[in-house]
Amino acid sequence: MNQDANTSDPVVVEVRAADPYSVVIGRGLLPEILEACSSSRTVAIFYQPPLAQTAETLREKLAEVGVDAHRIEIPDAEAGKDLAVAGFCWDVLGQIGLNRKDTIVSLGGGAATDLAGFVAATWMRGVRVVHIPTTLLAMVDAAVGGKTGINTDAGKNLVGSFHEPAAVFVDTATLETVPRNELVSGMAEVVKCGFIADPVILDLIEADPEAALDPSGDTIVELIRRSVQVKADVVGQDLKESGLREILNYGHTLGHAVERREQYRWRHGAAISVGMCFVAELARLAGRLDDATAERHSSVLASLGLPTGYDPDAFPRLLELMAGDKKNHSGFLRLVVLDGLARPSRMEAPDPSLMTAAYATISEGRAPSGGGILL
Ligand SMILES: NC(=O)c1ccc[n+]([C@@H]2O[C@H](COP(=O)([O-])OP(=O)(O)OC[C@H]3O[C@@H](n4cnc5c(N)ncnc54)[C@H](O)[C@@H]3O)[C@@H](O)[C@H]2O)c1
Ligand SMILES: O=C(O)C(=O)C[C@@H](O)[C@H](O)[C@H](O)COP(=O)(O)O
Ligand SMILES: [Zn+2]
């Protein structure tokens, strides 16, 4: 959102939901952001600490067009997805008098869009939210589709709401300050989109993984556009995850368990990278996925620097944690698996011996405690 960044014509992906909205992808999107917010009398900008200067620039520009804009810093990363932080945000909204004609803006990674989206969903039973995702992961995934939430002692994202944004502004110039490990983490969700729906994504990454990770290159913009399109197509058909949307949870059943076991010190993308390798191997052992597609998981994820296995001793605990997954029915584990490339399906009540074997295969040779990969 740097006002000095080179501008070019933005690409727009439409989310054809009940209340349609646009995901605008480009560089230097400040004019579009101001236009999206300027009909509100009051705007609250919830931002993560590294975005303080950007938040101040946005606040000043909104003030120049007569908006009573406030910037409110939230704790970084998963520490922000917390009930006490949501309570703090509600208090601030009360103090600044934000009402149903007004707008909440999120500025930051997926933890910021999830928290601000949740606060917007609950304040006055729902106010407008505009997302400005600033990590790769938030651009391709968290800012689109209306899933909002916080973590509780019972698990990750167990408290939340479906609350779609009024608009999403993906300013790719913001990627230039994102630490490399966060870019790598975001690539896991990009790869997910490749396996579940758009294999061209995998071809682009395999052709040159370093180019894919270049925050100012053309490849990353194409990967963002394709991933956003995958997500938009899915959530446009099934906002509330009554069926199709579950495919976006590919790799997340084990991945969320790893995140919790690591007390959120692992990056989300690193954990779901392991989760995708696990379900690929499980589907292969169950005779549902061909060897080449299964092996392609670990090769493409490893080429980006993502982990493909985890602590060999952790599986009993991970199984306990997976029992709380939101996709489970009637006490049975339900996993998203592939029956082929871009052919997502479900596996219900998986054979425990196959799961143990799949986990052992991906974790072979790993050090206990996950090998210290925090990514
Ligand atoms: N709602 C959804 O559909 C959805 C989808 C995927 C992930 N998620 C959630 O998103 C979260 C992960 O998001 P994330 O990976 O973006 O993590 P994050 O929000 O924790 O951000 C990662 C780090 O990058 C920093 N950062 C953000 N933008 C920056 C910038 N431009 N320059 C420098 N530093 C910057 C942040 O301050 C943070 O330290 C998880 O909680 C996950 O559950 C939600
Ligand atoms: O949008 C979705 O639907 C997803 O599942 C996207 C996931 O990448 C994302 O991590 C999401 O937050 C997971 O949601 P949850 O319902 O499994 O908590
Ligand atoms: Zn995810």
TrEMBL record:
Binding site for NAD(+): 76-81, 110-114, 134-135, 147, 156, 174-177
EC number per UniProt: 4.2.3.4
EC class name: lyase
Gene Ontology cellular-component annotations: cytoplasm
Localization per record: Cytoplasm
Reaction(s) the record says it catalyses: 7-phospho-2-dehydro-3-deoxy-D-arabino-heptonate = 3-dehydroquinate + phosphate
Keywords: Amino-acid biosynthesis, Aromatic amino acid biosynthesis, Cobalt, Cytoplasm, Lyase, Metal-binding, NAD, Nucleotide-binding, Zinc
Source domain of life: Bacteria
Binding site for Zn(2+): 189, 252, 268
Cofactor note: Binds 1 divalent metal cation per subunit. Can use either Co(2+) or Zn(2+).
Pathway(s) where this gene product acts: Metabolic intermediate biosynthesis; chorismate biosynthesis; chorismate from D-erythrose 4-phosphate and phosphoenolpyruvate: step 2/7
GO molecular function: 3-dehydroquinate synthase activity; metal ion binding; nucleotide binding
Needed cofactors: Co(2+); Zn(2+); NAD(+)
Entry-linked InterPro entries: Dehydroquinate_synthase (IPR050071), DHQ_synth_AroB (IPR016037), DHQ_synth_fam (IPR030963), DHQS/DOIS_N (IPR030960), DHQS_C (IPR056179)
Residue span, 3-dehydroquinate synthase N-terminal domain: 72-183
Matches recorded under Pfam families: DHQ_synthase, DHQS_C
PANTHER family membership: 3-DEHYDROQUINATE SYNTHASE, 3-DEHYDROQUINATE SYNTHASE, CHLOROPLASTIC
HAMAP family from the UniProt entry: DHQ_synthase (MF_00110)
General function of this protein: Catalyzes the conversion of 3-deoxy-D-arabino-heptulosonate 7-phosphate (DAHP) to dehydroquinate (DHQ).
Protein name as catalogued: 3-dehydroquinate synthase
The species this protein was found in: Dietzia lutea
